[in-house]
Amino acid sequence: MNRYFIEVGYKGAQYSGFQVQENAHSVQAEIDRALGILFRSPIETTGSSRTDAGVNAQQNFLHFDTELPLHPQFLYKINAILPDDVVLRAIYQVPEDANSRFAALSRSYEYTLYTHKDPFLKDRGYFFPYKMNIAALEEAAEVIMGYSDFTTFSKRNSQVKTHICKITESRWTVDGERIVYNVTGNRFLRGMVRGLVGTMLRVGRGKLSMDQFRQVIESLDCTNADFAVPPQGLFLMNVRYPDGLLQPISFDRQ
After folding, report:
1. What percent of the chain has pLDDT over 90?
2. Distances (CA, A) of 100 to 94, 108, 132, 189
C-alpha cells in the first residue's frame, strides 16, 4: 500500500467547510469524489487542517492510501474532474506511517481587511472602512504571543483535548489600503483565528484597552471573544512539514 500527500488550494465560498460532513457540501468530499473517479475505486482522504465554511486555502494537505498506480497524467486528470474553485497542486510520496495532520509542524494563516470599497477584494477580504489605531493592533498581536491557553478563542463544542497552542508569529502589517494579520502556530482551535482578529479589532477601534484585552484572553471564556468577522478574509497560507518528508512526484508536461 502506498501513501501519498496531496497539496491543494481552494476558494471556500461555496462550501460548508473543508471536512466531509453529512448532508453538506465540503471541499474534502469533492477531492474524495474526484480521486474515486480517477482511480475507479473509493478513496478516503485525511486532511491536515480543517477550515470553516467560507474560509479559503492557498495551501492545505491531505493524505490517502492506494495500491493502484498513479495515472501518468495524474495532475491534469484530477484537476479536470475537480470543480473550478478547487485545485490539486502537487502529489508527494511519503512513508506509510506519515499523517498529514499529525506530521505538520506548523500552520500559517492570513486575514485581510481592506479600508476602501474594492470589488476585486470583496470575496478575498473584509471591507472595514473604520478608523483604527494601528499601533494598538500591533501591540495586541504581540500580546497574543505571550499566551498558550486559547480557550477564549475556541468555539464551543470543539471536542478537543487541549486548548494549548504555541504561537510563533502574530503580526499586523499595512499595505496600502490592505491591513493584514499573519499568524503561525503549531495548531489552531475551531474559529480561533477569526476570534483573535475580531477581538483585536475591538482594541484597534478603542473599544477594549490593552488590559481589558489581556483579561479577555485570561478569562478562558469564549463569550468574551468576538468571532463576528466574515470568513472570506481568512486564508490558510501554509502547512509546514519536516524537511525531507515530502518527496514530489513529477509528471510529464501536460
Report:
1. 92
2. 10, 15, 39, 17
Four-CA torsion 155, 158, 163, 167, nearest 10 degrees: -70
Q: Are residues 114 and 233 in the same domain?
A: yes
Is 109 assigned to a binding site? yes
* Residues spanned by the domain of 180: 106-237
- Count of structural domains within the chain: 2
Write a three-state SS string for 10-67: ECCCCCCECCCCCCCCCHHHHHHHHHHHHHCCCCCCEECCCCECCCEEEEEEEEEEEC
Look at residues 76, 103, 130 and tell me which one is the last residue of a structural domain. 103
121/211 same-domain check = yes
pLDDT digits (tens, 9 = 90+) for 151-207: 999 987 767 889 999 999 999 999 989 999 999 999 999 999 999 999 999 999 999
Among 16, 104, 9, 85, which Cα is nearest to 52's? 16
Q: Do residues 34 and 65 share a domain? A: yes
User: Among 68, 103, 138, which residue terminates a domain?
Assistant: 103
CA-CA distance, 45 to 32, in Å (whole number)?
6
Active-site pick, 32, 52, 118, 175: 52
pLDDT at 63 over 90: yes
Q: Going by DSSP bridges, is the β-strand pair 56-66/234-240 parallel, antiparallel, or unpaired?
A: parallel
- CATH number of residue 77's parent domain: 3.30.70.580
Average pLDDT over every residue of 31-50: 96
In a domain, 254, yes or no: no
Q: Is 52 a catalytic residue?
A: yes
- Whether 58 has a pLDDT exceeding 70, the answer reads yes
